[in-house]
Amino acid sequence: MGNNSNMVMLGLVLSNLLFSLASSASGGEGLHRIGLKKFNKLEDHDRLAARLGFTDVESMRSAMKKMILQYYLGTAGDEDIVALKNYLDAQYYGEISIGNPPQKFTVIFDTGSSNMWVPSSKCYFSVACYVHNKYKSSESSTYRENGTSAAIQYGTGSISGFFSYDDVKVGAITVKNQEFIEATKEPGVTFVAAKFDGLVGLGFQEIAVGKAVPVWYNMIQQGLVKDPVFSFWLNRNPNEDQGGEIVFGGVDPAHFKGEHIYVPVTQKGYWQFNMGDVLIGGKPTGYCAKGCAAIADSGTSLLAGPTAIITEINQAIGASGMVSQQCKSVVEHYGQTILNLLLVEANPRKICSQIGICTFDGSHGVSTGIESVVNKKERELSGGSRDASCSVCEMAVVWMQNQLSQNQTQDKILDYVNQLCEKLPSPMGQSSVDCEKISSMPIVSFTIGGKTFDLSPQDYILRVGEGAQAQCISGFTALDVPPPRGPLWILGDVFMGRYHTVFDYGKSRVGFAQAA
């Protein structure tokens, strides 16, 4: 995730359910493992937002954008493994501790940023601080004061606070005197809903706010890892207890098949490299035939790229805007009823409440629940008084009124409204697909180091819910980064879930191999 003052964020995501540490154990071959319990079941009303890591639709939309716009352990001789938690393929996080005695925190391990931060006990006026673990310097015997102010600006939010020093334990190794930010302000809703307490940046020091030395750098400098390499394995099966692993100091051969293809880092800061052409169904698009820049980013859930090519991909897989689809669903189920009520001169402001999509507050409709259009529980996520279904219904009433005033036939009116539904913008670029057509969707491939890396529909489609209530969301989202940094691709968890990723600091390169 990108996080310097000009970039955007991973305020990333989520609900305030927390997963607890189950056990600590040392595996074979000097590998130290931390087991995490996994919460497997979600209430229906959590499913859609939770799939993208949120508890409400509005925070999902804003945080998705900022999340994507981010711009971007044992003794010496051993490898240290930290288990990661997979929250419905949308976020991966693990546990660290700070100070003596240890204070535990759940964090995102983010290759798209370089600072470490956690909420501070001195955070008094931000709601987010009251629903997450807070660092208490007065309770740590290894705390050392710094006090320098720090601020990180994200696309739709920010954090600010001050730097401190303390010992940080990651897996079975302890980094001494690590500089990190005690966040005293976390305004907005993004961090309130987050499943994680804080963040550990694994990018280069060049993008660290305050030029703070990243945790990973200190692991190397203090001789805590065998090799200056760390690797990610992300388990894309949300029904399994183990969400994945990050290995500091090497790689675990059990996590990949074959050999890694390595490409050099072209610009330090983010783990940035050159990428070749993008193929849809085996056919070159030509967009990156002369090369594109790309970033391997564990802090981004989706796969982001320039609008021109993402539009081609989403068109090829039959994706449409989620609001557009919801609009057409309302028209399909209630269009004729709305027309009939208008023809008998019902009060237009009350129609959507009469058919049960909204309730009437005396001036206009406000949200209620209609299970046959959009899952009732899911709509309750919108949290506001006027959710998308209610708003779409009211728009349809206005559109139909206008057409009736022009003496159009009922068939033409319904066709016209469906056409308008097609034109509705998709908030934050999110698009949905027909779950029944996943098997017929094309392979989408990315050329890296002269080799094509395929993503199947099962890799790039996020499935929400089960059975008839299931929704399927495209894992591709548009992001236009202007020159000189862009155009840019951000290969987030959709890609890293399929391909085991090695971040080789010593040789300044990134490697990919098929995940096992």
TrEMBL record:
The keyword Nucleotidyltransferase does not apply. Residues 322-362, 386-427 form the Saposin B-type domain. The keyword Protease applies. Pfam families: Asp, SapB_1, SapB_2. InterPro entries: Aspartic_peptidase_A1, Aspartic_peptidase_AS, PEPTIDASE_A1, Peptidase_aspartic_dom_sf, Phytepsin, SapB_1, SapB_2, Saposin-like. Keywords: Aspartyl protease, Disulfide bond, Glycoprotein, Hydrolase, Protease, Signal, Zymogen. Residues 1-24 form the signal peptide. SUPFAM superfamilies: Acid proteases, Saposin. Its EC number is 3.4.23.40. It comes from the Eukaryota. Residues 92-513 form the Peptidase A1 domain. One of its GO terms (molecular function) is hydrolase activity. Belongs to the peptidase A1 family. This is AP4A phosphorylase. The lineage of its organism: Eukaryota, Viridiplantae, Streptophyta, Embryophyta, Tracheophyta.
